[in-house]
Protein 1
Amino acid sequence: MVTENIIRIFAGSVILASLALGADASPLFHSHHWLWLTAFVGANLFQFGFSGFCPLEFVLKKLGVQTCEQATEARLHAQH
């Protein structure tokens, strides 16, 4: 899996989890403060669209996860 996919999966999971935790149907963890987490992820995605900087991508690259471009180059070199 590449960094771009992991970022999308992580962002979507955090948004869905924070919405579930902030919903009225969640009796154990019900708090509207969980929606701040949703807002944080949305704001981060918004700034990422303009700046190209994503903290999670930085961490994933340090862990050795390939970007989509690197994975494509590796596949092309493997075919030759």
Protein 2
Amino acid sequence: MSQVALVYPLLVQVALTFVLLIWMGRRRTSLLASKEVRPEQVALGQPGWPPRETQVSNSFSNQFEVPVLFYVLVLLILHLRMSDVVHVILAWAFVLSRLAHAFVHTTSNDLRVRGPVYGIGMLILMVMWIWFAVRFLAASV
């Protein structure tokens, strides 16, 4: 399996983060320009943003929580040249779960859907880490 195959899901995860950043930035700029939100209402992180903007912002912030473990793992796998088809499939599954999570987070924000989607992504990431650890430890013996 080519090492490059693991870079594609990584790029999609990074793209998701930037899309959410741009979306959030445009929404916030628009809200401030229209004076719907005043700078002093949100300058210190107060909850002064409208609910819809908060959804997008929370989804953006969420990309710096669990996905950090994904980034670290992918970089380790690439650095150690341990990429295999299992990791590539799991990486795509994780990124698809993150896309689904962001979609739910920024639309209905239904916790009955968002929670399980988040949990599936976490489970996939744990399996990725376990698979990596097993292969790494087996190669180290």
Protein 3
Amino acid sequence: MPDTYDVIVIGAGPAGENAADYAKQRGLSVAIVESDLVGGECSYWGCMPSKALLRPTEALAAVKRVPAAAGAVTGEVDVEAVLRSRDAFTSSWQDDGQAQWLDSVDVDLLRGHGRLAGERRVEVAAADGTTRRYTATRGVVIAVGSRAAVPPIPGLAEVATWDNRDVTAVKQLPERLLVLGGGVIGVEMAQAVRRLGASEVTIIEALDGLLANEEPFVSDEVVAALEADGIDVVLGARAEHVARQGTDGPVTVTLAGGRELVGDELLVAVGRRAPTDDLGLDTIGVEPGRGGFLDVDDHLRVPGRDWLYAVGDTNGRALLTHQGKYQARLVGDALAGVEVDPAWADQRAVPRVVFTDPQVAAVGLTERAAREAGLDVLTVSFDIGHTAGGALLGAGTSGTVQLVIDRAGRTIVGATFVGPGAGELLHAATIAIVGEVTIERLWHAVPAFPTVSEVWLRLLEQVRAAEL
């Protein structure tokens, strides 16, 4: 391996891989540093294994909703087969394929812990104890992702708990699972574990609703679905103490007011933090922000360091794989001197999907966020089950779809979909927001019949009736 590259990327998750690939496509020499598995959190302990655990029971529930097909369901999901499928999607936690891909695109893989060692310099400590320093002539990209945050609850640090890595890599399901946190990981994994056979699952959320960053109706509809699955959802509950009996006995969470909840395992899913405490940032005079995240400008550069970029979860702007890859593509091009637009979508058009059943899909601003931004907005909504396509999905199909429309610009600035497969409806809204498509133009985007997408026509009819 050479000692000098045009670009050095620290972290070989999806964001890091994309930054490296795009820089390489532009003719730059690139090395990427990784101390764990090439492919990162998403491939092995996040997006892919979690969806592999959720999808089989979602498919079964979808069949059961169709009266003419429900009678054909004579058994339950094969849990062992689900776990084998999950193992296949994670390549059994082996990164040979990902490493081979890096080799195929001519990006050098440096195995070891990477940290800055001064301006444009990166130090890599290998597993064998050796350390080597490299120089990046164009720039360094930090893409170290994020890890589960641990809240300062008395007793929590002293007991064995689960994080996203433990629950997505589970080999044997617990009978009773407590989930601390009602965000994306909490609600997805609570439903997965319950539907795969756990007898008791309880979500403990300190706020008054689940998925608090989304529209208020999202919490109501997701809570109703989880409770229908037999999951106990405890809202407005602050955990005051955690204890476990022995090393692997039952774990008890004591809530404010004295209520005690007992489970076999406790999944802590209250947020994320960036692992930037040992990245050598002190060697260049940079201090991480709250949660370890790095501040960046709209070109993803660390302020005052035009050679240093941070992409993906590391900068805390949007902790989503696809958004990190978007940022990385911009940076990969920018490092090669290609003029690119700033990371506009990070502020105005972030798409996000929660893969519960029903799914929650949203992009752009919520109504509250739009009003706080000073926009005069019109909000319209419709039940997805009242479309012909929705009704064909099966008995009891429902879910709210809502658009947030800027009256002045006559464009959509936010959209939320709740319902079966709602994630597949999202990209049309994303295109409308990014393209700043006016309501008048959207009238000529004709949805096919009978599809769930016909909900767009119903929403536009409401806009017309409101005389926007």
